[in-house]
């Protein structure tokens, strides 16, 4: 769906990661493998598989057009998938077409995921974000928009640009890649730090700790809470006050 090329009876995959392409070659059990070098001296690795029966079945099942760059699959293809199937697809899609970078704050663990496809993918990109938001029960503060880019042929084209910066979502995606044992590109996904917590996530964790302490001992004092959480008294008092103001604590707490 991303890096692959389809014809009526053949699937071809060409990428720059040799180890990755060899895994694919072994999986589909083919000897059709070769490497190429471009004018800049860079290598790419190619595997092709021809099957007059299986290829049309795959194309039909996933609504894959030979010119898929400008003709994305229909939404109902993804609506028929269960959550595990969809997440496996999306992670593979990111692995092929997506880009994961440090979000200008490498030392703090912030990452950013972006995908650029032809503008015809705009509605699909919106569906992807909405589906992920539903699966993770997270209000994703990310976006899909149409931007102008310069294509390799130096023509200006309209692209659908998907962005995810929510660290909870990014860690969720990486954890699912690990859980499902998906063959993803290590160099790409290593840019998501599973040990990182944003300030918002840290605040939610601290709030939950306070709720648990109050549930275990309703009469616990702010001083005791501060000691258990290793906060100073003023910070603890301010946090509890904000939680009460926002209705995040019972009035009796």
Briefly characterize the structure.
This protein is of the alpha+beta class and 253 residues long.
Q: How would you describe this protein?
A:
- This protein is α+β, with helices and mostly antiparallel strands and 253 residues long.
- The protein has three domains: 1-64, no CATH class; 69-196, Endonuclease I-creI (Roll), CATH 3.10.28; 199-245.
- 43% of the residues lie in helices and 21% in strands.
- The protein contains ten helices and eight strands.
- The longest helix has 18 residues, at 199-216.
- The protein is elongated.
- It starts with a strand and ends in an 8-residue tail after the last helix.
Q: Tell me the name of the CATH homologous superfamily of the largest domain.
A: Homing endonucleases
Radius of gyration: 24 Å
Q: What's the shape? A: elongated
Helix content: 40-55%
- The top level CATH class name of the largest domain: Alpha Beta
Number of strands: 8
Number of helices: 10
Strand content: 15-25%
